[in-house]
Write a structure and sequence with these properties.
The structure holds two protein chains of two kinds. By secondary structure, chain A is mainly alpha-helical. Chain A contains eleven helices and four strands; from the N terminus they run ααααβββααααβααα. Chain A has one domain (16-132, 151-296). In chain A, helix 1 (5-38) crosses helix 9 (236-251) and helix 1 (5-38) packs antiparallel against helix 10. Chain B is of the alpha/beta class. Chain B folds into two domains: 1-77 and 153-233, 3-Layer(aba) Sandwich (Rossmann fold), CATH 3.40.50.300; 86-152, no CATH class. Chain B has helices at residues 40-47, 70-74, 93-100, 106-119, 121-125, 136-148, 166-181, 193-199, 217-222, 224-230; strands at residues 2-11, 14-24, 29-34, 55-60, 63-64, 78-81, 154-158, 185-190, 202-207, 210-216. A six-stranded mixed β-sheet of chain B has the order 6-7-8-3-9-10, with helices on both faces. In chain B, strands 2-1-4-5 form a four-stranded antiparallel β-sheet, covered by helices on one side. The longest helix of chain B is centred in the last third of the chain and has 16 residues, at 166-181. Chain B is globular and about 45 Å long. Classes of the chains: A mainly alpha, B alpha/beta. At the A-B interface, helix 6 and helix 7 of A face helix 2 and helix 3 of B. Chain B: It comes from Halopseudomonas aestusnigri.
Chain lengths: 310, 233
């Protein structure tokens, strides 16, 4: 018995949603890790994602100019260089916009981060122009799910790459956080920064490390989404940052599994809305979902309620 | 081993420590007693570089500590059991202990781990448990164990008896005595003046940010002023 068309339609929406959702999750981890340690939101994080996309474009264009056309080489180089450059950005953001202002009023670094965000956006605008840039399509095709002659769902190779890269990145991050010495220091800092410092640990370095890790993950998302959508411009960081921030809050800010769950949930919600109602309403539903969750579970799905330490 | 000379500390414009002079010699147990808000914890934290001393000099084994960061100071064989224990409640006992030995090499880490687990068999039973699920006494043992993991020569204790049952307090004080026998120098801040002075070689009494008395533990125990103010007459 053939399955109804509507089922394949649903599968397609879910696949699309999970694809975008996993990149939201990658960006959301940067927000959640920084918040977990210093209790502040890095509002320049979306721009780091955007810069990640641009670096990937520049690397691919440069390699093509030198006659290197091998797709795996281009993709690996794009990831590696993009992650390295954005790590430097993440580190600098912390040094310039956060560290000098830490310990004061919490609103001040918030403002400086927004300033940093505007600065980075315009830096890219001046350097690369504000028009859309087309990323070359390097990976096309996919597998069909369902009947060849009728309506069917398609899982593209690009989507598979997004799932695979996200899964590998998340696994590595989880191993780092749960097993390694520095990962343990990160968790200790998230719980009690001052006590960790009293154990002789340079907590400034740990804080900088979380900015760097977050930036590298945002770059991964930037490379992936740049190739998936095929178009980048200096303004993509704003919406992506807002969405990923929403995902982090949705899942419970400060919690890494929460960021992943929030990202996927947000991606699927958007795709379902776009697929069954209207594309124009997907942001409304996404942010509406955020409001609903915050009303009934203010600390997010997996978040812990903030307990005042005594 | 440790000298504080004319140390003053301010919180903003408020002066919390006034020209404090204090000395801890190698192998001693020195205690600092005083009422709530007298500045005991501030003194201890100033020693750790947080807050920084505004004037005066703090020397440890010949090194001047006042210009150093907290992280630098705490890597000089100094370890602290802070007020309120501050164990990492979401980390396991094992992870808490290994945080204490963050900079130790593998060998020292293993030796210290054996020492700590022999000293506190309870921690061995709870090894894979999250610290937040343990009782207050167990958490205090973990806080002391974590401090010992770095093989400190100077151990700072801030009110280790606070909020614990008398039988646990007795255990904690027994442990401090054992540590001294193993060659650890102890600087103990306590409100529980009676027990602290019995244990200590020397003691300092603090009032309103000033050191007002300095003597041997025995002499302070017998001092009528001290008895009246801190030992219930």
């Amino acid at each position: 018995m053939a399955m109804p068309e509507s089922l394949y339609y649903l599968i397609q929406q879910l696949l699309n949603g999970l694809t975008v959702g996993s990149t939201y999750a990658l960006i959301a981890i940067g927000y959640t890790m920084v918040y977990g340690i210093i209790g502040m939101i890095n509002f320049a994080h979306g721009e780091v994602y955007m810069i990640g996309s641009y670096i990937a474009f520049i690397v691919i264009a440069a390699l093509a100019m030198f006659g290197i056309e091998s797709v795996p080489v281009m993709i690996v180089a794009a990831f590696a260089i993009s992650m390295m450059v954005t790590s430097a950005y993440g580190y600098s953001i912390e040094r310039v916009a956060y560290r000098p202002l830490r310990g004061g009023n919490r609103l001040i670094p918030l403002i400086s981060a927004i300033g940093m965000s505007i600065f980075l956006q315009n830096l890219v605008r001046i350097a690369q122009g504000s028009r859309d840039i087309a990323m070359p399509t390097m990976i096309s095709g996919g597998i069909d799910i369902g009947p060849q002659d009728g309506f069917h769902a398609t899982l593209s190779y690009m989507q598979m790459i997004i799932f695979a890269v996200t899964l590998i990145t998340m696994t590595l991050l989880t191993l780092f956080i749960s097993r390694s010495r520095m990962g343990r220091a990160c968790r200790a800092c998230a719980e009690d920064l001052k006590m960790t410092n009293l154990l002789g640990i340079n907590t400034n370095a740990v804080i900088a490390l979380t900015f760097v890790i977050g930036a590298a993950l945002a770059a991964v998302a930037g490379v992936l989404l740049g190739m998936y959508y095929g178009v980048i411009n200096p303004y993509i960081g704003f919406m992506a940052g807002l969405k990923a921030f929403t995902a982090a809050v949705l899942g419970g800010i400060g919690s890494i599994p929460g960021a992943v769950l929030g990202g996927l949930l947000l991606g699927v919600t958007e795709a379902i809305t776009a697929g069954y109602f209207s594309t124009e309403y997907k942001d409304v539903v996404a942010f509406g979902l955020l409001i609903l969750i915050l009303l009934f579970r203010p600390s997010g799905i997996l978040g812990r309620p903030e307990v005042e330490k005594v | 081993m440790l000298y504080m000379k004319n140390v003053s500390t301010h919180y903003g414009k408020i002066q919390a420590l006034h020209d404090v002079n204090l000395e801890v010699r190698r192998g001693e147990i020195v205690t600092l007693i005083g009422a709530n808000g007298a500045g005991k914890t501030t003194l201890l934290m100033t020693l750790c570089g947080d807050p920084r001393a505004t004037t005066g000099s703090i020397r440890y084994e010949g090194d001047e500590l006042t210009g150093m960061t907290t992280a630098e100071i705490m890597r000089k064989d100094i370890a602290i059991v802070p007020e309120g224990r501050r164990v990492f409640s979401r980390l396991t006992v094992e992870e808490n202990l290994s945080m204490g030995a963050f900079f130790a090499d593998k060998e020292t880490r293993q030796v210290q781990l054996d020492t700590v687990l022999t000293l506190f068999p309870r921690l061995k039973e709870r090894y894979q448990q999250r610290a937040g699920t343990m009782s207050g006494g167990e958490q205090q043992m973990l806080a002391i164990g974590r401090a010992l993991m770095s093989k400190p020569r100077l151990l700072l204790l801030d009110e280790p008896s606070l909020g614990l049952a008398p039988i646990i307090i007795q255990q904690i004080f027994d442990i401090i005595e054992q540590l001294r026998q193993q060659g650890v120098t102890v600087f103990l801040v306590e409100q529980n003046a009676n027990q602290a002075l019995k244990l200590a070689d020397r003691g300092y009494v603090m009032e309103h940010g000033h050191i007002v008395l300095e003597d041997t533990g025995e002499a302070l125990l017998a001092n009528p002023d001290v008895r009246k103010a801190y030992l219930g007459g």
